[in-house]
Amino acid sequence: ALRSALRSKVHPKAGRLCYSSSSAPTVKLFIDGKFVESKSSEWLDIHNPATNEVIARVPKATQEEMLAAVDSCSRAFHTWSETSVLSRQQIFLRYQQLIKDNIKELAKSITLEQGKTLADAEGDVFRGLQVVEHTCSITSLMLGETLPSITKDMDTYTYRLPIGVCAGIAPFNFPAMIPLWMFPMGMVCGNTYLLKPSERVPTCAMLLAKMLQDAGAPDGTLNIIHGQHAAVNFICDHPAIKAISLVGSNQAGEYIYERGSKNGKRVQSNMGAKNHGVVMPDANKENTLNQLVGAAFGAAGQRCMALSTAILVGEARSWLPELVQRAKALRVNAGDQPGADVGPLISPQARDRVCSLIQSGVDEGAQLLLDGRNVKVKGYENGNFVGPTIISNVTPEMKCYKEEIFGPVLIVLEADSLDDAIRLVNNNPYGNGTAIFTTNGATARKYTHEVDVGQVGVNVPIPVPLPMFSFTGSRGSFRGDTNFYGKQGIQFYTQIKTVTSQWKAEDATLKSPAVTMPT
Ligand code: NAD
């Protein structure tokens, strides 16, 4: 029902429909509290990754539509920023409940457009929901500071204030979680928000917008535009937009960071990754192998925190055959099929790119222990499937090591010692996440202290921090200085105003101008 409210034609049955490009339902824009049909002459097809059938069309918003969206945000800011923090909190309390009530519907839309399994899609919503739940603590999160009696009769206090219109540009791989890292944090602080979802998976964000409206968010507090480069440039350039949150590839993130910063905006860019899992020979073997396989191949490897690179230290090398056996046992299927472990990649181009990176490893002398390139999925022969793939004997010079593969491919390197493993990880330009598997506390402690990566797991393969912390990817995986969500997120979306006041009990009128600095 929600979905049909947002599309001009009702979607019949998920996954098994075949539209021609021009007859597919259209995704609307969300401008000033209304879901409106775009007048654009440029549209992009959205495909079901499991079948490659066209399931919808998304517009590239026109300049006029984008201006209307940002104007709506600007107008709404005047009242929203003055709305009491308790009223804003109430809206997000209702919002988190609506998301919980609709988790299955959101997950279905994610699986249809993005491809991941339904169970994993629910996880996508759930991890975003946790951020929304955290925004409900805004009354504490936004507290300022005070220090009385800085000097005689003088007190200093700070307020955290919203900064204006903020914008978010989202990637395709987490259609719920990542938009939910963005607009709830921005809005609960009193900002209004312009969101550009990924043009490849826009429907989930529209469903989330409808629920936010139902939760009571006033018109104009959230606007949604669709598009690609023109929409991104519009966001980077429009003077009313004060801050941009981007999650995406390095190509997009570095560009947006530079263009937005040049225009005087705050920008936080969460970008690509190459996450290493260091396996010590003293690790719990069963646990470690299962963790590695889950973290490398879950979501078909299309997670920025996927554990895509294993470093087997010393005797752990001998675990390779068992690793391959476990990966082989995963079931590749359309995301809405029962028992599916690994769904399709987002597009045929993504599949071809992943396959060519696998081939580059072979050509450069690595050993292909498990090859998922020719996987056949019955009933889904046109889907973008690649099965779990494991490449060993990889070295740091190889292309498959240097590039983020973003597919169900685990590459395996070997190291003689923990020091060698740490050197390898620290020489890699990315710093999103890493994990060490060990039963030795001193080894874990050495690793966590010496590894130069922003998020470290100890026997935790995907150490994405919960929302009371922040997402702290580092080095080549991040541009900016203030991270997403948690305290850092509040900082990103607020400006501090510091007030210094003096109230003297007795009359202390200055008798002459004070031209020197007080000492
Ligand atoms: P993408 O960079 O292609 O797209 C992200 C957003 O940027 C989209 O809204 C898109 O329209 C826009 N965009 C795309 N190319 C652009 C360009 N050249 N210039 C300006 N804007 C552009 O990313 P994607 O393929 O949707 O997502 C996958 C990438 O996102 C991977 O690299 C992954 O590691 C990264 N990612 C990072 C995190 C993180 O928190 N570090 C989380 C999820 C995904």
UniProtKB/TrEMBL annotation:
<dbReference type="InterPro" id="IPR016160">
    <property type="entry name" value="Ald_DH_CS_CYS"/>
</dbReference>
<dbReference type="InterPro" id="IPR016162">
    <property type="entry name" value="Ald_DH_N"/>
</dbReference>
<dbReference type="InterPro" id="IPR010061">
    <property type="entry name" value="MeMal-semiAld_DH"/>
</dbReference>
<dbReference type="GO" id="GO:0005739">
    <property type="term" value="C:mitochondrion"/>
</dbReference>
<dbReference type="GO" id="GO:0004491">
    <property type="term" value="F:methylmalonate-semialdehyde dehydrogenase (acylating, NAD) activity"/>
</dbReference>
<dbReference type="InterPro" id="IPR016163">
    <property type="entry name" value="Ald_DH_C"/>
</dbReference>
<keyword id="KW-0520">NAD</keyword>
<dbReference type="InterPro" id="IPR015590">
    <property type="entry name" value="Aldehyde_DH_dom"/>
</dbReference>
<dbReference type="GO" id="GO:0006210">
    <property type="term" value="P:thymine catabolic process"/>
</dbReference>
<comment type="similarity">
    <text>Belongs to the aldehyde dehydrogenase family.</text>
</comment>
<protein>
    <recommendedName>
        <fullName>Methylmalonate-semialdehyde/malonate-semialdehyde dehydrogenase [acylating], mitochondrial</fullName>
        <ecNumber>1.2.1.27</ecNumber>
    </recommendedName>
</protein>
<dbReference type="Pfam" id="PF00171">
    <property type="entry name" value="Aldedh"/>
</dbReference>
<comment type="function">
    <text>Malonate and methylmalonate semialdehyde dehydrogenase involved in the catabolism of valine, thymine, and compounds catabolized by way of beta-alanine, including uracil and cytidine.</text>
</comment>
<dbReference type="InterPro" id="IPR016161">
    <property type="entry name" value="Ald_DH/histidinol_DH"/>
</dbReference>
<dbReference type="GO" id="GO:0006574">
    <property type="term" value="P:L-valine catabolic process"/>
</dbReference>
<keyword id="KW-0560">Oxidoreductase</keyword>
<feature type="domain" description="Aldehyde dehydrogenase">
    <location>
        <begin position="35"/>
        <end position="499"/>
    </location>
</feature>
